[in-house]
Amino acid sequence: MNDDLNSDQIKVCCADFYQSDIIKLLLGDIMHPGGLELTHHLGQTLGLSKNKRVLDVACGRGSSAIHLAESFGCQVTGLDYGTENIANAKANAKSKEVSAPTSFKLGDAELLPIDDGTFDAVISECSFCIFPDKVKAATEIARVLRPQGKYGMTDITINEPLPEDMQSLLTWVSCVAGAGAPEQYVSTLKQAGFGNFVVQDHSNVLLTLVNDIRKKLLGVELIAGLGKLDMEDFDLNKAKRLTKRGIELIEKGVVGYTLITAIKL
Ligand SMILES: C[S@@+](CC[C@H](N)C(=O)[O-])C[C@H]1O[C@@H](n2cnc3c(N)ncnc32)[C@H](O)[C@@H]1O
Which domain holds residue 13? Predict the structure, then answer.
């Protein structure tokens, strides 16, 4: 990925990255640490229940939206910047014959195509760190929530400045090295009108995911060697370095994964 992109180019580039074959191979349909188990925990922490209207911002291929609709009976809308992701999410919901209503739409987290006060709850998983203008995204999330509506995120957190090599590796993988400390996310959310924060550390699931990816990269190397995988912009050596350094930094507590919930005041 190119490091010198403007905000719109970053979003397109990022959506393309998360729609690529290589990412499908490495992450499957659930593109966040902790899988649906952590999504379920997030739903419980937010107190989701039947008929609640929920928005999943940057929903990827819709797995979490479908899970929340099935498990809690809420009406879930998924929104993502990637056209292919939205098409996949619609197809997944159709094939799974989800019992509660789900819908999926194309859109930008920083300019949500949604009326004010539409939702009881909004979630985002492993996505807030990607949005170039976080205050804008948080303000949009607050706008589409009803008063006292809840926002819940799980996301990559960086607890102290990263070594330079890791900074450039993260920029490559997450479009912008946009992750911050939990306190920074809380401060951004406060600016957007949120309060009553709950913050939980879930760094163990990030470690599990990065270890899994590391193992899968060996398989990718094999398939690519046979010429059966389009690697395009994907730099396998960079990915191997990133996962190796990532594991070290997660173990040291420099990089983590955090759940934050908040209420629109
Ligand atoms: C790491 S994936 C997470 C996807 C999903 N939340 C999940 O857990 O499976 C990040 C997602 O953010 C989406 N995305 C990136 N920038 C966005 C933006 N500005 N607005 C909406 N979606 C965006 C990408 O297309 C991608 O699907």
Answer: 7-264
